[in-house]
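To: structure subgroup
Subject: Chain for Friday's discussion

All,

I'm putting the inputs and outputs inline so they're searchable in the archive.
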Amino acid sequence: MKYTSKNIIVVFLLAALAFFSFLMLQIIWTYVPMHSDTGFLQLKQSYLHITEWRIAFYTHVFTSMLVLFAGFTQFSQSFHRKYKSLHKKLGYVYVINILLVTGPASLLMSFYANGGLSSKIAFVLLAILWIYFTGIGVYKAIKKDFVAHRIFMIRSFALTLSAISLRIWKVIFAATTDIPPMDRYKIIAWLGWVLNLLIAEWIIYNTHLSTPKGEETK
């Protein structure tokens, strides 16, 4: 294999994503068994009596890693070539989870977000756009418009990665600023996904928009 700067960057990014996914898995593990006074739930004691919020929370926690893993596999050309059937099945796992499980759970949780109205709006928009981009991506695939399908799935996965980027920004802000925790949270509620989406648009602009329509269907 010839190691180019592009390959090195891809390997570095995948390693970073794998590392932060592992850290996220450790966080998820703290909720097994389902204690009501651990981790994020320490800040949500006033909502624990709301059955639908509690169901949405545990649904989101225990399905988020599945969405991340399935999403990672969808953008590897070598994986696609070698394991076409598995690639397709994991794609189904990804979209079904977002459209019917994790996405709706995230939307419900967003109405109870910390940080007041600003944070609530940020997370509501995140959940709606996540579901919308994924749904349009599926629709474009059904219509055999695979260039548009990939564009919308890039946007979808950029928002999927907010599960990681939000936590990274929490660490950065806590280590480098004296901003009060709740004010930090209001900023991170937006920064955690808007920057991801801007990066996704940059990637789309520099790759897929220059691809002749229909080329991806060959």
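Points worth raising on Friday:
The radius of gyration is 18 Å.
The CA atoms of residues 98 and 131 lie 6 Å apart.

D.
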